[in-house]
Design a protein that fits this description.
Length: about 100
């Protein structure tokens, strides 16, 4: 599985398919996660109050991001069952991976 999470865009991509999912629960300096089957990395941003930029972190376990994978899977299943894109209640709504509902 290829997984990409981009916090500022509230986007989660699994195997090239993306959905807008609330990523505000990720760390403040988190920029993106890139995962390819069994290895990946987390990219960080330097925030104004930080003295140094945190280097990218190599990861071999994505269980910390399972909530986002599950939210993506729920939206993908809704799309498959309805044969349409899940209804977004308003233009600024994003999908909450904790409650599994639009907010």
């Amino acid at each position: 599985m290829r997984l990409t999470i981009i916090k500022d865009d509230h986007r989660v991509y699994v195997d090239g398919v993306s959905y807008e999912i609330d990523c505000s629960g990720l760390p403040e300096d988190f920029h993106a996660l890139q995962w390819d089957d069994n290895i990946g990395h987390v990219e960080y941003v330097k925030l104004p109050h930080m003295k140094e930029h945190k280097p990218n972190e190599i990861i071999t376990d994505i269980s910390a991001y399972q909530t986002y994978i599950d939210a993506h899977a729920k939206l993908a299943e809704q799309n498959k069952n309805q044969n349409t894109i899940p209804v977004q209640p308003h233009a600024n709504a994003i999908f909450d991976p904790i409650t599994m509902e639009w907010k």
